[in-house]
Amino acid sequence: MTFARLPRTVVPRRYDIRIEPDLAAFTFVGEEAIEVTICETASEIVLNAADLAIRRVAIERDGRRLTGSVTLDEAAERAVLCFAEPLQPGSWRLLLQFSGVLNDKLHGFYRSTFTGGDGRQGALAVTQFEATDARRAFPCWDEPDFKAVFQLTLVVDDNLAAISNTRISEVRPIAGRAKKSMAFAPTIPMSTYLVAFVIGALEPTEPVEADGIPIRVWAVPGKSHLATFALQVAAFSLRFFQAYYGVAYPGDKLDLIAIPDFAFGAMENLGAITFRETALLVDEGSATHSEQARVAHVVAHEIAHMWFGDLVTMAWWNGLWLNEAFATFMEVLAVDAWKPAWERWDHFGVSRSAAFLTDGLQSSRPIEFDVVAPKDAEAMFDVLTYEKGGAVVRMLEQYLGSENFRAGVRRYLAAHQFANAETTDLWKAIGEACGQPIPEMMDGWIFRQGYPLVTAKTEGAGETIRFSQRAFRYLDDGGDAQANWHVPITYRARVNGEIIRGRLLLSAEDGRVHFPGRPEWVVANEGGHGFYRVRYGPELLASLLSAPGETMTPIERFNLVNDAWAETLAGTLTASAFLELAAHFTGETNRHVWTPLLASLGFLARVVPPDLRPSLERLTRARLSTAMEWLGWSPRPDDSELVRELRGEILRALGTLRDDEQVRRAARDRYALGGELNTLDPNVRAAILVIVAHTGGEIEYAEYLRRFKAAQTPQEEQRYLRALADFRSPELIRRTLELSLNGQVRTQDAPFLVRDLLMGVHSREFAWAFVKERWEQMERLYPAQSGLRRLCEGITGLVTPALEQDVRAFFARQNVAFGGKTLLQYLERLRVAVRFQEREEVSLRAYLARF
Ligand SMILES: [Zn+2]
């Protein structure tokens, strides 16, 4: 099979496409006229097509028409069009007729079904083209640098709505057919993967104007009242980005469309962004903080792409990371500007730890790598692209200063709008704007996998701090130890009662900073924006821990705990030393700092042998008791949203311990309130559902299942669905597993449900047996590419030597094609966990004996 790029001898300029879907038969027919430039004499034209039947082929110019024949190469997803005589260079019109099936794999041109408010079944025809699925809807040059103008016409039933990238220019009834023909205005020159069309009984909100651009949210009937929040963040983001980029919004309207079946979070089709319902529709009154924040982030992220991605596009898929990394960076910038109290940069520091986790593996990859097969491009949609990419962009912005950075971005957009660019073009533009050589600094972060562990130690009389770097790995293979990164180290110290700030670009193995006296304490990675971990020498660590709330900001405290936990997994710090360190944070009040504290306890619960669980639970309760006393069950009027969220997290952690009867009983009492449950704080309510599930039986299970099906918001639906995975009885676990395949749970959600069951201490063995048995069925049913990849993250929870062996044997037999190294990364994470279990059991046993 060859993945060579399409020949450049024929280039499309404009597509006029007419498509007519049949929402009852789940098929479609289409025809297109493509204006092409033939650059050198050719007797055949090669373009992409997959799962399509192509019926008529012709090409014409100056009133002359030649008919052609077509050969489909299904493996290469190409159509080769042959003509009887050579085509001379110049402009031609290529005419094609084709037909296809509205598939159920959530890619290409596919169907999504829903039950309307009136109880009737409805269907939508939806597109999802990134990376390489436009070819499943119409024959095209499906590579991002073949930018062209698209003019769409959709033929749909009279009573249905149709949305595409641009405004509707004309609607005409079709005589005698109860159908109408809807023509859309021509787009700007753009890539095929950004074309979108959605047809069905969708309802729009009233438009909200932002700088003259009308913004609407579309949803299936009965849900448009959940759109207010998204409209607010969309209007803010559109204005924010216009001001930041200094370039007008490149579309003529903006539609945000909620799709009931959607494989990803959202898709940045120019002017017609599609979303999974949970990422767009939300009821502010009943949603938790994180549910609201998710909507805000996804909406801002996709709108950021309208410029960075849509107006200027990567030349090839190896540049995808920059597209996503930059949108991730901009999304945080916008939401932080919108809601400063949400402390979103601190939150980003937390979410980026997922990238630290993957990038500390031997089986990690550089952010940018050669993409040959389309499957490799799919594998780019991971934490390294989004979180590590976003983090190194943020690190650069902080290092250069936000004004310099923005000036470079504006220069880049102005130079490449309506066209394509390479990663180096951005560094060049930023370098010119600030007069610094950017590639030299960035290359190590982009083209090498991994990141440094920076050690900070006192030297001499203690007035000198030595910073040194080496690669951080969970499983040290001894490789790659010599290479150095250009590490922008920022630090803050207290010396002779004064605060001193400074920075050092560490490009050698070590570097020194001399202070005018012996520092009382030193914080490295000040502000927490650097993509590196820090290890402190014993004296420096002790001085920071003496009063963590005073010496460090929340994100710095988060980094200290999170980096220490990573060293614990890597085996350079013992589990008992980590638990001692964590004991300094029992009085912690910041929500973000609690994340690694709770996550490390959750990890321990998965790996300790059953006889140690009671003492681990006693330790957990001891560590959380101060926070629980402080927070209580009921929010105070002056609680910030982050404190409210923390309350939910602490309650959930305590209430799911086996022997915390007090919290459990309180949760069950509140659950028994029935309808009044809805008057509680949403974060507390979400915690109660999880706690009750952990001890719940048949009655609660049936009730959760009923409420899942009758849910009034996408978030409520997810809460009940995901809580089904928390029930502990084997019979209920079995039923939940069945739900993942029997059609009662959408295929967009089922892989997450199975993943949760694989991660659960009580359910993992059942879930693993089920996955092995039903693997082929899952492969057939779940969304292409993304479904099994998500599910398989669950294998990192199968932490026993026997299970690990079985997992390895299973995957050695399967031909698993996720693309990239995803499966290897999961297997390595499992290895790290099992090795931890074997290494730490004795010392943990001794340590936990005190509790
Ligand atoms: Zn994106």
Distance between the termini: 61 Å
Low-confidence stretches: none
Instruction: State mean pLDDT (0 to 100 scale).
Output: 94
Strand content: 15-25%
Count of individual beta strands: 29
Task: Count up the helices.
Answer: 27
Helix content: 40-55%
The biggest beta sheet is recorded as: 10 strands, mixed
Architecture overview:
By secondary structure, this protein is an alpha+beta fold. The chain has 27 helices and 29 strands. Helix 4 (344-351) packs parallel to helix 13, helix 8 (402-416) packs across helix 9 and helix 23 runs parallel beside helix 25. Bound molecules: zinc ion (ZN). Zinc ion binds at residues 268, 301, 305, 324, 327.
Q: What's this entry about, in short?
A:
It is built from 27 helices and 29 strands. With 851 residues, the protein is an alpha+beta fold.
Which characteristics define this entry?
single chain, 23% strand, 41% helix, 851 residues, 6-stranded mixed β-sheet, 27 helices, 29 strands, alpha+beta, binds zinc ion
How do the helices and strands line up, and which of them pair or pack?
Blueprint lengths: L9 E13 L4 E12 L3 E7 L4 E9 L2 E10 L4 E10 L2 E12 L6 E8 L5 E8 L20 E9 L3 E4 L3 E7 L4 E6 L12 E4 L2 E2 L3 E3 L2 E7 L8 H18 L8 E6 L6 E2 L4 E5 L12 H17 L6 E3 L5 H19 L5 H8 L1 H7 L14 H5 L4 H18 L1 H15 L2 E3 L1 H12 L3 H10 L4 E8 L4 E8 L15 E9 L2 E9 L3 E5 L6 E4 L8 E4 L1 H8 L2 H4 L2 H17 L4 H8 L8 H17 L5 H19 L9 H15 L5 H11 L10 H14 L2 H12 L4 H10 L6 H10 L10 H10 L4 H18 L4 H7 L8 H13 L8 H27 L3
Parallel strand pairs: 1-10, 17-18, 18-20, 21-22, 23-29
Antiparallel strand pairs: 1-2, 2-7, 3-6, 4-5, 4-7, 5-6, 8-9, 10-13, 11-14, 12-13, 15-17, 16-17, 19-20, 23-24, 24-27, 25-26, 25-28
Helix pairs in contact: 1-2, 1-3, 2-3, 3-7, 4-13, 5-7, 7-8, 8-9, 13-14, 13-15, 15-17, 16-17, 17-19, 18-19, 20-21, 22-23, 23-24, 23-25, 26-27
